[in-house]
Write a structure and sequence with these properties.
Radius of gyration: 53 Å
Shape: rod-shaped
Structural class: mainly alpha
Distance between the termini: 152 Å
Order of helices and strands: HH
């Protein structure tokens, strides 16, 4: 009988160990199932991040293109400003030269042009007109 009781106790312990192993196996299966779900969600999130990164890259490319165009326009505008400044200086010099020429013409008119005498000493036929135009 002792042998029977010892065998019975060993059998009960084995069954208890099997039950515990079965519970551990079920918990491990649940854990693996949760890991698979988490991995799937994580993969979806990574896909969304990759798609957003691609969109941002496209947007940044457009921004870089726009900045390059603005830079080019700015350089062209700066060049036009330099050309305008050069033109203004040239016009200023031409205006000064024209004023000098007009001053010479006015001075010449006070020496005989008002009297109708040309630079060569002949009558111009415009007596009195030069003085009226210059004054």
């Amino acid at each position: 009988m002792m042998l029977f009781i010892t065998c019975y106790r060993s059998l009960v312990k084995c069954l208890q160990n099997i039950k515990k192993g079965s519970e551990f196996s079920a918990k491990a299966g649940e854990s693996i199932h949760q890991i698979i779900e988490f991995s799937t969600k994580l993969s979806d999130i990574i896909d969304h991040i990759a798609a957003a990164s691609n969109e941002q890259t496209g947007g940044l490319d457009q921004i870089n293109t726009a900045i390059s165009q603005l830079d080019q326009l700015t350089q062209e505008n700066a060049s036009m400003v330099q050309q305008s400044n050069a033109s203004v200086l040239s016009l200023q010099k031409q205006s000064e030269r024209l004023i000098e020429l007009l001053d010479e013409f006015k001075m010449g008119s006070s020496y005989g042009y008002e009297k109708g005498i040309s630079a060569h000493g002949s009558r111009s036929g415009f007596e009195g007109r030069e003085g009226a135009l210059l004054n």
